[in-house]
Amino acid sequence: MLYAADVQGINRNRNFERKGMKLGFIGLGIMGTPMALRLAKAGHALHVTTIGPVAEELLKQGAQHLATAEQVAEQSEIIFIMVPDTPQVADVLFGEHGCASAALKGKTIVDMSSISPIETKRFAQQVRDLGADYLDAPVSGGEIGAREGTLSIMVGGDENVFARVKPLFDILGKNITLVGGNGDGQTCKVANQIIVALNIEAVSEALVFASKAGADPARVRQALMGGFASSRILEVHGERMLNRTFNPGFKISLHQKDLNLALQSAKALALNLPNTATCQELFNTCAANGGGELDHSSLVQALELMANHKIS
């Protein structure tokens, strides 16, 4: 026998699966624009706001450009947030003309930014106190994954809320995991960024070593791709290192922010992350030499500087 609450929940799930939903998207940068575009192309009505200009292609898909996060929240059933850091999320949610200034009861906030797990738990509670649902859902996969809809999405929040939003996540990604409660998605993303940074550093070291030893680094990479050292980082970022194509898919400045979250969390946990700290110093070297806005694969330049040798 189904009770009224059960029927209401089933109906909400069905509503979240329909096309033509009213969705909000706040933050249209390197990642946010292609993600929002995929939602629009799937037949959903988008209301958007961002600091910079809105991509013409997104407007052609019918996205409505509004002035504030409050206006986006007023017009939307689900509000996606994709901004750089914790202070920006706080401002989007609770600042002047933020989402909390709208009537949020019955709506759902989905924060896909990469921010502090501790602050995420606080944000989630504040949003729930306003009668809305909250998921933290940071992503991995970069600009390519955002364009192709192959992002890994690490979700923290209530299982029923996750189930309702899952059809929309399916438009954006392939590997979608409910990790645990609010904040756990962000914790998972911090762990992801530790692994990515250490892999980039390892590939950088290997290619600088091979090149300075006199081997052809391109052929070394090709050989390694067929063995146990093969990885997505070696495939994609190794090629960028060889070709010197450091236009940002994911900026060093953003990876610095993520590793800072890792190191701050580690300090709170009385945990030592020595290799993460080393990677952060290498990113700091790149930033100090004007490379903060380059792709994080350009970490190799810090090692080249130390070796007095450029991969060739």
Question: What secondary-structure arrangement, pairings included, does this model have?
Answer:
Blueprint: H1 4-17, E1 22-26, H2 32-41, E2 45-49, H3 56-60, E3 64-65, H4 69-75, E4 78-81, H5 86-94, E5 108-111, H6 117-129, E6 133-136, E7 139-140, H7 142-148, E8 151-156, H8 159-172, E9 173-180, H9 184-212, H10 217-224, H11 232-243, H12 252-268, H13 274-288, H14 300-307
Helix pairs in contact: 1-8, 2-7, 9-10, 9-11, 9-12, 9-14, 10-11, 12-13
Question: Could you describe the 3D structure shown?
Answer:
- With 312 residues, this protein is of the alpha/beta class.
- 54% of the residues lie in helices and 13% in strands.
- The strands form two sheets. Strands 3-2-1-4-5-6 form a six-stranded parallel sheet, with helices on both faces. A three-stranded mixed sheet has the order 7-8-9.
- The N terminus is likely disordered.
Task: State the main characteristics.
alpha/beta; six-stranded parallel sheet; disordered N terminus; three-stranded mixed sheet; 312 residues
The separation of the N and C termini measures: 70 Å
Taking all Cα atoms into account, the compactness measure Rg is 21 Å
Summarize the biggest pleated sheet. 6 strands, parallel
Number of E-type strands:
9
- Low-pLDDT runs: 1-11
Tell me the strand order in the biggest sheet.
3-2-1-4-5-6
- Kindly report the oligomeric state of this protein: single chain
